Amino acid sequence: MSRIGRNPITVPSSVTVSVADGIVSVKGPNGSMTRILPEGITLHQDGDQLNVDRLNDETAYRALHGLTRTLVSNMVTGVTEGWTKELEIIGVGYRAAAGAPGVLDLALGFSHPVKFTAPEGITFEVPAPTRVIVKGADKEVVGQVAATIRKIRKPEPYKGKGVRYLGERVARKAGKAAK
Fold first, then answer.
1. Which of the two residues, 33 and 179, has the higher pLDDT score?
2. CA distances (Å), 139 to each of 55, 81, 84, 87, in order?
3. SS3 64
4. Which domains does the chain have, with CATH numbers?
5. pLDDT surpassing 60 at residue 1
């Protein structure tokens, strides 16, 4: 049995979970989320505990058992606490500013500032001009938005300038050897 899949998911009292026709719905203070359960994977609730079960021990079901448990657990965490991803901007003149609600203005060394519009359910915080915090209930979307912002100006290996995750180490290369 999957070591992750057999762990129960604790559901807080502020969250309601419903399972119908292979679709799990989670509602909480930060919003609501739905996901289709894979075929052969079932979810049942015992009080404030959710348990994920699989049909049998075939390889395909074993592979989806722990994954499904983690995805549902992330949904419960997202609607209660939410998810965040922090980015830092390094470079002379590189900065971020919060524009209109859901819009991030980035000055990253291009001839014009880049305006990044957040998808639904995502908010930006800019506590400092060189730091951006991406917040949302869906862990996958928060990570994708952070990766898309990072992709606008990846950290380069010679000076380390660009957008990077907070705490990310960038492998540095030696420059051209002088004669």
1. 33
2. 27, 11, 8, 15
3. helix
4. 9-80 (3.90.930.12), 83-165 (3.90.930.12)
5. no
Contact between 17 and 24 under an 8 Å Cβ cutoff? The reply is yes
CB distance 86 to 132 below 8 Å: yes
Q: How many residues does the chain have?
A: 179
Confidence check: pLDDT of 14 > 80? yes
Phi-psi group of 145: left, alpha or beta (phi > 0 → left; psi -120 to 50 → alpha; rest → beta): alpha
| Rg of the chain in Å (alpha carbons) | 21
pTM, whole model, 2 decimals?
0.89
Backbone angles phi, psi at 38, to 5 degrees: -65, 155
Residues 83, 136: Cα–Cα separation, whole Å: 5
Q: What is the mean pLDDT of residues 117-143?
A: 95
pLDDT digits (tens, 9 = 90+) for 80-119: 999 999 999 999 999 999 988 889 999 999 999 999 999 9
- Whether the CB-CB separation of 146 and 134 falls below 8 Å is answered with yes
Q: Counting Cβ atoms within 10 Å, is residue 51 exposed (0-12), middle (13-18) or buried (19+)?
A: middle
Q: Which residue has the tokens 């830092």?
A: 88
Planar angle of CA 166, 170, 173, nearest 5 degrees = 160
Per the CB < 8 A criterion, the answer to whether 101 and 88 are in contact is: no
